[in-house]
Amino acid sequence: MTLPFEYQNPTLQFERFMADARDCAGLPTTNMAWNMVVGVLHTFRWRLAVPQALSFSAVLPPMVRALFIEDWDLEQAVRPFGDAADWLADVRSVRHRHNFSPPDAVASVATALRRHVDALAFERVLANLPPQASRYWQPKAVSAEPLGLQLL
Q: What distance in Å separates the CA atoms of residue 1 and residue 84, rounded to the nearest whole number?
Protein backbone atom coordinates (compact mmCIF):
# COMPACT_ATOMS: atom_id res chain seq x y z
CA MET A 1 0.00 0.00 0.00
CA THR A 2 1.23 3.46 -0.81
CA LEU A 3 1.64 6.09 1.85
CA PRO A 4 -1.78 7.77 2.27
CA PHE A 5 -2.09 11.38 1.11
CA GLU A 6 -3.14 12.57 4.57
CA TYR A 7 0.22 11.41 5.96
CA GLN A 8 2.27 12.56 2.96
CA ASN A 9 0.81 16.05 2.99
CA PRO A 10 -0.82 16.73 6.36
CA THR A 11 -0.06 20.44 6.24
CA LEU A 12 -1.60 20.88 2.79
CA GLN A 13 -4.69 18.94 3.84
CA PHE A 14 -4.99 21.02 7.01
CA GLU A 15 -4.60 24.30 5.11
CA ARG A 16 -7.43 23.21 2.79
CA PHE A 17 -9.65 22.36 5.76
CA MET A 18 -8.90 25.69 7.47
CA ALA A 19 -9.67 27.60 4.26
CA ASP A 20 -12.98 25.74 3.99
CA ALA A 21 -13.82 26.50 7.64
CA ARG A 22 -12.94 30.17 7.10
CA ASP A 23 -15.08 30.40 3.98
CA CYS A 24 -18.04 28.49 5.46
CA ALA A 25 -18.07 30.89 8.41
CA GLY A 26 -17.65 33.97 6.23
CA LEU A 27 -14.49 34.99 8.07
CA PRO A 28 -11.82 37.01 6.25
CA THR A 29 -8.76 35.07 7.49
CA THR A 30 -7.77 31.60 8.62
CA ASN A 31 -6.26 33.24 11.70
CA MET A 32 -9.78 34.33 12.66
CA ALA A 33 -11.06 30.82 11.92
CA TRP A 34 -8.46 29.19 14.16
CA ASN A 35 -10.18 29.77 17.53
CA MET A 36 -13.52 28.84 16.00
CA VAL A 37 -12.18 25.48 14.79
CA VAL A 38 -10.44 24.75 18.09
CA GLY A 39 -13.58 25.79 19.97
CA VAL A 40 -15.88 23.60 17.89
CA LEU A 41 -13.62 20.56 18.23
CA HIS A 42 -13.06 20.98 21.98
CA THR A 43 -16.71 21.78 22.67
CA PHE A 44 -17.66 18.45 21.10
CA ARG A 45 -14.88 16.57 22.91
CA TRP A 46 -16.04 17.96 26.27
CA ARG A 47 -19.33 16.15 25.72
CA LEU A 48 -17.87 12.70 25.15
CA ALA A 49 -16.41 10.02 27.38
CA VAL A 50 -12.77 9.22 26.61
CA PRO A 51 -13.53 6.04 24.58
CA GLN A 52 -16.15 7.91 22.55
CA ALA A 53 -13.78 10.79 21.86
CA LEU A 54 -11.03 8.43 20.77
CA SER A 55 -13.42 6.64 18.45
CA PHE A 56 -14.44 9.96 16.90
CA SER A 57 -10.85 11.16 16.58
CA ALA A 58 -9.95 8.06 14.55
CA VAL A 59 -11.99 9.33 11.58
CA LEU A 60 -10.43 12.81 11.57
CA PRO A 61 -7.54 13.87 9.33
CA PRO A 62 -4.23 13.80 11.28
CA MET A 63 -3.87 17.55 11.91
CA VAL A 64 -7.54 17.96 12.85
CA ARG A 65 -7.17 14.94 15.13
CA ALA A 66 -4.21 16.63 16.81
CA LEU A 67 -6.32 19.74 17.48
CA PHE A 68 -9.18 17.61 18.78
CA ILE A 69 -6.99 15.98 21.44
CA GLU A 70 -4.67 18.87 22.31
CA ASP A 71 -4.71 20.08 25.92
CA TRP A 72 -7.11 17.32 26.90
CA ASP A 73 -7.81 17.13 30.64
CA LEU A 74 -8.80 13.49 31.05
CA GLU A 75 -10.02 14.19 34.58
CA GLN A 76 -12.60 16.75 33.42
CA ALA A 77 -16.20 15.57 33.83
CA VAL A 78 -18.21 15.00 30.66
CA ARG A 79 -20.51 17.95 30.04
CA PRO A 80 -24.16 17.49 29.13
CA PHE A 81 -24.79 17.89 25.41
CA GLY A 82 -27.21 20.77 25.86
CA ASP A 83 -28.35 22.67 22.80
CA ALA A 84 -26.93 24.89 20.08
CA ALA A 85 -26.82 27.93 22.39
CA ASP A 86 -24.73 25.98 24.92
CA TRP A 87 -22.40 24.80 22.17
CA LEU A 88 -21.88 28.31 20.82
CA ALA A 89 -21.17 29.69 24.29
CA ASP A 90 -18.51 27.01 24.80
CA VAL A 91 -17.03 27.59 21.33
CA ARG A 92 -16.77 31.31 22.04
CA SER A 93 -15.19 30.67 25.45
CA VAL A 94 -12.01 29.40 23.79
CA ARG A 95 -9.56 32.31 23.86
CA HIS A 96 -12.61 34.56 24.07
CA ARG A 97 -10.71 37.82 23.54
CA HIS A 98 -9.58 36.63 20.12
CA ASN A 99 -12.58 34.54 19.15
CA PHE A 100 -14.54 35.68 16.11
CA SER A 101 -16.89 32.69 15.92
CA PRO A 102 -20.13 33.60 14.14
CA PRO A 103 -23.52 32.33 15.36
CA ASP A 104 -23.30 29.40 12.91
CA ALA A 105 -19.77 28.40 13.93
CA VAL A 106 -20.61 24.77 14.69
CA ALA A 107 -22.46 24.26 11.40
CA SER A 108 -19.66 26.08 9.52
CA VAL A 109 -16.97 23.79 10.91
CA ALA A 110 -19.23 20.75 10.42
CA THR A 111 -19.69 21.67 6.77
CA ALA A 112 -15.95 22.11 6.26
CA LEU A 113 -15.00 18.98 8.20
CA ARG A 114 -17.40 16.78 6.25
CA ARG A 115 -15.51 17.75 3.07
CA HIS A 116 -12.30 16.32 4.53
CA VAL A 117 -13.36 13.02 6.09
CA ASP A 118 -14.50 9.66 4.81
CA ALA A 119 -18.28 10.19 4.83
CA LEU A 120 -19.18 6.56 5.59
CA ALA A 121 -16.66 6.25 8.43
CA PHE A 122 -17.80 9.61 9.84
CA GLU A 123 -21.47 8.58 9.85
CA ARG A 124 -20.63 5.18 11.28
CA VAL A 125 -18.80 6.69 14.26
CA LEU A 126 -21.55 9.27 14.83
CA ALA A 127 -24.12 6.45 14.88
CA ASN A 128 -22.25 4.92 17.84
CA LEU A 129 -22.20 8.17 19.83
CA PRO A 130 -25.04 9.85 21.72
CA PRO A 131 -27.87 11.00 19.37
CA GLN A 132 -26.94 14.64 19.94
CA ALA A 133 -23.59 14.00 18.25
CA SER A 134 -25.27 13.76 14.85
CA ARG A 135 -27.11 17.02 15.51
CA TYR A 136 -23.84 18.69 16.49
CA TRP A 137 -22.18 17.77 13.20
CA GLN A 138 -25.06 18.82 10.93
CA PRO A 139 -23.71 20.86 8.02
CA LYS A 140 -25.20 24.14 6.92
CA ALA A 141 -28.36 23.90 4.86
CA VAL A 142 -27.71 24.27 1.16
CA SER A 143 -29.48 27.22 -0.40
CA ALA A 144 -31.53 26.60 -3.53
CA GLU A 145 -30.63 30.07 -4.79
CA PRO A 146 -27.65 30.62 -7.09
CA LEU A 147 -24.90 32.61 -5.43
CA GLY A 148 -25.37 36.34 -5.66
CA LEU A 149 -29.10 36.18 -6.41
CA GLN A 150 -31.92 36.69 -3.96
CA LEU A 151 -35.52 35.81 -4.42
CA LEU A 152 -37.97 38.59 -3.61
A: 42
